[in-house]
Sequence to fold (297 residues):
Amino acid sequence: MAIDLITQGKQKTTWSKKALIREAIWGYLFIAPNFLIILFFTIIPVFFSLYISLTNWTILGTPHFIGLENYQNIFSDKLARETFFNTFYFTVVSVPINVFLTLLLAVLLNQKIKGIAFFRTAFYLPVISATVAVSLMFMWILANNGLMNQILGSLGVEPIRWLTNPNIAMNTVIGVTIWKGLGLNMIIFLAALQDIPKELLEAASVDGANRIQKFFKITIPLLSPVIFFVTITGVISSFQSFDLVYNMTKGGPGHATTVIGYYIWKQAFDYMHMGYGAALAYIVFVAILVLTSIQWV
Fold:
């Protein structure tokens, strides 16, 4: 009898092991497509670009290994320094304004009033709008004889060269970038606001707290992880900014709006300096890593 029980136990153990193996095999088969996509379109390109950053390559020829020469050239490249400064300015100005405005919008749209869904949709539409279409629209609005200057002219204000004045162009691009990205962070904040326990707000009201006190003493502390997340993603997005600059100003006038994403594309695909462009990309990676680490502290 004891021997039969031991045999049955071993059979069950063997069966359970086989079932676990079959389950694992099916699991790996299901994740294999995504893993292959990540492998061939993310992991391999990352390491390949690291190798390319150590070479002199024009895409059409054979890469020639030159070590750290590309990285050394970055620190002696005056335009690269100007580009990094432009990117830093773009980030410092756009990210805080975006976080503030999106939080404000989320608070305003977190109301149970009739028709609020329309306003939420309206503010989110620019996010899903094609960047090219947005660029063309604002190029028409902000042209020297565009709609904005016609309105200003009717008020007796001199026309403003929104996209051709080196002192204004960067701020114009920042404004358009903020406008286009408002809806995304607004939705994130809105979801976080709706996740705050109502009991806490009701308890604060019972204790005599007004709306401002509840906002700064309860809402903001509970939203701090979301604010941190939005700030981090905003910094990363700012360092990757390319499409609006490319479509609206081509980095000009002069190099006033040349940010690092556009400069990398220019070096790699316009000047065919693929190794130098890859080195710039890795410098951006390190810069984002450092900035993110500082914000974590």
